[in-house]
């Protein structure tokens, strides 16, 4: 009988479809025994690829597979793991999986292998999150960032910060408990300096991560402009197919249209919107409010103007709308295949013709996206961003309390900052860490 803790779990690890090989993963205390039953072998050498015949429990030959046994704790989950690499195709995998289940394994729940790896200290939350996101990554840029997280860069960042905070907490809690003259007199200013630096560090990573979130999720690009300037024509040209209806009637697009597109190594989500103008009809007004929302949501805005016409009040309104946006705006003068009448006294105006080519626009967007690539560590999920923001706020409050010599409240805030920052890697266990820190202080008391 397998105890609940040591339940052996099994799952098909490869995608559901036709491929040359299929992989089943088995993890838990009974993984080896179950595998031996199905292969009629007496042993499997750890970390050795072994070609085995696989039989059903009734003794019927099912397939040949390369088997690899990873002996605990040197495995993905930290438990005994056996991997079956069988011939591809869903039926073979299913039949073998069923035999594993009859032999005592249970079907793994989603993410259960990673969960066990986390519980066995094989990976922290940052790595688990990176693996999950890597599987779903849709652009080369995202893969690069997530690979760095998997390597442990973010964990190192969070752990170093956490270690400094724990040290601070230990110092201050000690100073609450012990006589002041046992501690260096400039300790408070040292702590204050260190906390200010960490606060700035957190503010920076949050700001950087927010502005670079598009590297992972795909940057959002909103195409805005007054009616009839050629917004939908630009969308269609970028997508290379007729996605949106185009006509010379103003107010053609009334609903917001969104499509994904790869530009260079990046994924972008492009949003075509209803032309913005005054005195539009009711339905169009709804569309216009969607456009304003699209500007708000977007990372990049394409402000489009009709180069073949003179600038009017509506164009002025668009210029006004995008003038103090805290995001990248491309000013696009469309219809440049016609005589240019539109005057736009701005640097970097992109003169294009959606009818002929959007190459210039694409290469400018690509250049901008490449410039956002960064070797710096960034947070890849909103949970990580929120944890850093919460930690940063707690440190800020702690700094104020330190100035007021409110040490107990200060300790409470630092504790809270540690808890938040720990959410990135591993939830904070106060006693365990404080014991460790205090033991290294050699206070002799
Ligand atoms: N000559 C020329 N005509 C263009 C160009 N781009 C778009 N047009 C024409 O301009 C008209 C309006 O194009 P749309 O793409 O529907 O414009 P829009 O901005 O999406 O318009 P609304 O959806 O009404 O806001 C159509 O007749 C297009 O064929 C261009 O580069 N050159
Ligand atoms: Mg349109």
Q: Note the gap between the termini.
A: 50 Å
Structural class: alpha/beta
How many DSSP E strands? 12
Mean pLDDT: 86
Beta fraction: 15-25%
Biggest sheet, spatial arrangement of strands: 3-4-5-2-1-6
CATH architecture of the largest domain: 3-Layer(aba) Sandwich
**Poorly predicted ranges:** 436-445
Small molecules in complex: guanosine-5'-triphosphate, magnesium ion
Percent in helix: 40-55%
Number of domains: 3
- The shape is flat
Rg, rounded, reads: 30 Å
Number of helices: 14
The string of secondary-structure elements, in order, is EEHEEEHEHHHHHEHEEHEHEEHHHH
Sheet with the most strands?
Answer: 6 strands, mixed
Give a description of the structure.
This is tRNA modification GTPase MnmE. It holds the Pfam family MnmE_helical. Its EC number is 3.6.-.-. The chain is of the alpha/beta class and 445 residues long. The chain folds into three domains: 114 residues, Gyrase A, domain 2 (2-Layer Sandwich); 135 residues, Four Helix Bundle (Hemerythrin (Met), subunit A), CATH 1.20.120.430; 157 residues, P-loop containing nucleotide triphosphate hydrolases (Rossmann fold, 3-Layer(aba) Sandwich). Helix content is 47%, strand content 17%. It has 14 helices and twelve strands. Strand 8 and strand 9 form a beta hairpin. Helix 4 packs antiparallel against helix 5, helix 6 crosses helix 14 and helix 7 runs antiparallel to helix 12. The relative contact order is 0.10. The C terminus is likely disordered. Bound molecules: guanosine-5'-triphosphate (GTP) and magnesium ion (MG). Magnesium ion binds next to helix 8. The site of magnesium ion (MG) has 6 residues, from helix 8.
């Amino acid at each position: 009988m397998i105890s609940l803790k040591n339940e052996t779990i099994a799952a098909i690890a490869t995608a559901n479809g036709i491929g040359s090989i299929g992989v089943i993963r088995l993890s838990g205390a009974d993984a080896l025994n179950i595998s031996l039953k199905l292969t009629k072998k007496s042993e499997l050498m750890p970390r050795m690829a072994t070609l085995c015949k696989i039989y059903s429990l009734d003794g019927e030959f099912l397939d040949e597979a390369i088997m690899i046994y990873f002996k605990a704790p040197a495995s993905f989950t930290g438990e005994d793991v056996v991997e079956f690499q069988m011939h591809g195709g869903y039926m073979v995998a299913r039949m073998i999986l069923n035999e594993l289940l009859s032999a005592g394994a249970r079907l793994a729940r989603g993410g259960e292998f990673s969960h066990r790896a986390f519980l066995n200290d094989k990976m922290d939350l940052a790595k688990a999150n990176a693996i999950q996101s890597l599987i779903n990554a849709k652009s080369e840029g995202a893969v690069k960032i997530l690979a760095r997280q998997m390597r442990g860069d973010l964990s190192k960042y969070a752990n170093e910060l956490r270690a400094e905070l724990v040290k601070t907490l230990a110092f201050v809690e000690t100073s609450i408990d012990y006589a002041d003259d046992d501690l260096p007199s400039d300790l408070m200013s040292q702590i204050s300096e260190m906390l200010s630096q960490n606060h700035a560090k957190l503010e920076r990573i949050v700001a950087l991560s927010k502005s670079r979130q598009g590297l992972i999720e795909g940057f959002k690009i909103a195409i805005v402009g007054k009616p009839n300037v050629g917004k939908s024509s630009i969308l269609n040209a970028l997508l290379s197919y007729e996605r949106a209806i185009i006509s010379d009637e103003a107010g053609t697009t009334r609903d917001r249209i969104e499509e994904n597109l790869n530009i260079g190594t990046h994924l972008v989500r492009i949003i075509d919107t209803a032309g913005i103008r005054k005195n539009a009809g009711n339905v169009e007004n709804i569309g216009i409010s969607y456009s304003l929302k699209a500007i708000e949501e977007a990372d990049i805005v394409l402000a489009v103007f009709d180069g073949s016409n003179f600038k009017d009040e509506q164009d002025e309104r668009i210029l006004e709308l995008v003038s103090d946006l805290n995001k990248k705006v491309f000013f696009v003068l469309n219809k440049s295949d016609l005589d240019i009448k539109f005057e736009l006294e701005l640097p970097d105006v992109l003169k294009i013709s959606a009818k002929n080519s959007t190459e210039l626009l694409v290469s400018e967007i690509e250049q901008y996206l490449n410039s956002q690539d960064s070797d710096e560590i960034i947070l890849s999920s909103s949970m990580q961003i929120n944890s850093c923001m919460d930690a940063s706020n707690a440190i800020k409050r702690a700094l104020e309390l330190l100035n007021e010599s409110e040490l107990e409240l200060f300790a409470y805030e630092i504790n809270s900052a540690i808890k938040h920052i720990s959410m990135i890697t591993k939830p904070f266990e106060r006693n365990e860490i404080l014991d460790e820190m205090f033991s290294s202080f050699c206070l002799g008391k």
